[in-house]
Amino acid sequence: MATTTDTAEPTAGTPDRGFLTPSRFPYRTIAMGTVGSTLLMLAALGAGGILIRDPVLGHGPLSWIRYGHGRALANALLYTGFALVVWAWVRLGRYALAGRIGSRPILIAALCWMAPLLVSPPLFTRDVFSYLAQGAQLLYGLDPYANGPAELSVLPDVVQNVHPLWQTTPAPYGPLFLLISKGIVSITQDDMIAGVVLTRVVLLVGLGMTLWALPRLVARLGGKLPVALWVAVASPMMVIHLFGGPHNDLMMLGFLAIGVLAALERRHVIAVVLVTVGMLIKPTAAVALPFLVWMWAADLPGPSKARNFLKAGAASVGLFLGVFVAGTWISLGSLNLGWWSGLSAPQLIANWLNFPTGIGEAVYTLIHLVANVPPSPFVTIARAIAMVGLVAFGIRQWWLSRNGGKEAVYRAAITLLAVAILMPPTLPWYLTWGFVLISAFPWERRNLSAVVAVSVFVTLVYYPTGEQALYDWTFIAVVVVASLYAAASLLRPDPLGLISAWRKPREEFLPEPAPTGRG
Fold first, then answer.
1. CB of 155 within 8 A of CB of 185?
2. By C-alpha distance, which of 52, 249, 63 is closest to 159?
3. Count of the separate structural domains present in the chain
4. Positions of the region Disordered (predicted)?
């Protein structure tokens, strides 16, 4: 008979019968993750992306959580909450893989874990403060593509909370997202807490679009909906980074997911329009557009593939230009193309999480042992080589997708992942670009364990304040161990027997039988 609560985890060396028993609803697992996200929310008041001038804590009796031992306690609580969320997520993944639960419990779990973070300070990033500042620039007549937030003379709380690196750099985001940020700031003005909360509420539109598209993508691409939801929606990258951050990638992914679905359903005009709108939020969505051309061409009648490609290509370019020009004009009031120059701003971030940057830094470190040379040429050359390789890889994937259909979607997804890894910078939440699409395909269990390792690792390599932790090697070693343990836990509960070591057989706690004779 199906149970209504979680079955206890099997101990090492015992048959996994309880794990294979169907369960209608994993209450304890969902509750565990909800407690964890609540701890994340509370601890973020002292350890997250806190405000320069905090109207809630300020210098009152609770301000101790932001300093000294109070902050150390906040960090401890935050990482405890993170561990609970990951533990719950891994347990949920085991249930999904074993067929114990369907998609509904996973969706409810993800929403329960996101709910406390709606009112949390930003987690592992301060980007949302830049969003608000750039929206304020547009609201008060400054060009975000020509000026940094430091030029804004009004809304001082908005400006002072922008990270110093981005105070003087132009916006790298699409004009439609700046229009959205402008609308948010027009309501919240200098109230940073309201601005962050309202940004999350608005970005929920992207989450809703993704949730609407994902079951239909799974039906077309052959995956399993519980697994797809577990990878794309309930993972720490989505819950903690995209929503807890929050990041505008969440809205871009909604347009991308529905656009790709429309292409699979042969509604190609809608597909190109939606993905172009996604590009007007964050330019990354443009990577998928060339793959949509092949999908359109494959669905056209006629024996000539070349002619079909030209027809689909011409129609796609026409639609793209129309939507691009109209979206830019509506958002900015003019055909301002300055946002293309803003795309270079994120390249100021240099750390080894970006693979070519890491190679350049490693080569520099070796040469620096014998010669005093600057590091920048090595990073620049490594990035240039990686860009050439990325272009070649992207062109090859595009050519391999010429038959359209599922193959084109898969090639687009892995190209998005390649862009996230090889194009500077690589930021943890960038990996969601490809994961949302690829989650709808069939998965092998061992590959899902790699997803767990990557998800935990990339979430932890930044401190909760948004500053990178990548060169704190002791901390990174701990992160690697935690990531590998989480990955192994998906394949086998309690892989090192750490939990079962604390459990004693029940017989040990039974009273000893009374002696039967005098001896």
1. yes
2. 52
3. 1
4. 1-20
With beta carbons less than 8 A apart as the criterion, state whether 331 and 178 touch.
yes
3-state secondary structure of 468: strand
- Cβ-contact 37, 114 below 8 angstroms: yes
In a domain, 81, yes or no: yes
Task: Give residue 50's domain range.
Answer: 25-121
List the alpha helices (DSSP H) in 401-494: 405-422, 432-438, 445-460, 473-491
Q: What is the DSSP letter of 222?
A: T
Q: What is the pLDDT of residues 447-490, one digit of tens each?
A: 999 999 999 999 999 999 999 999 999 999 999 999 999 999 99
The Cα 436–Cα 122 span in angstroms is 22
| CA pair distance 487, 481, nearest whole angstrom | 10
Amino acid making up residue 276:
T
The backbone torsions φ and ψ at residue 468, rounded to the nearest 5 degrees and listed phi first, read: -70, 145
Q: Is residue 151 part of a domain?
A: no
Q: Structure tokens of 432?
A: 């969601």
Q: How far is CA 468 from CA 64, 95, 402, in A?
A: 24, 34, 40
Contact at 8 Å (CB) between 114 and 107? no
Report d(CA 430, CA 497) in Å as an integer: 34
**pLDDT tens per residue across span 252-261:** 999 999 999 9
pLDDT in tens, 49-63: 989 888 877 777 778
In a domain, 400, yes or no: no
Structure tokens at 238: 């989505």
265 inside domain: no
Q: Per DSSP, what are the bridge partners of residue 23?
A: 3
Say what the pTM is: 0.89
What does the alpha-carbon distance between residue 166 and residue 168 come to, in Å, rounded to a whole number?
6
Rg (CA), the chain: 25
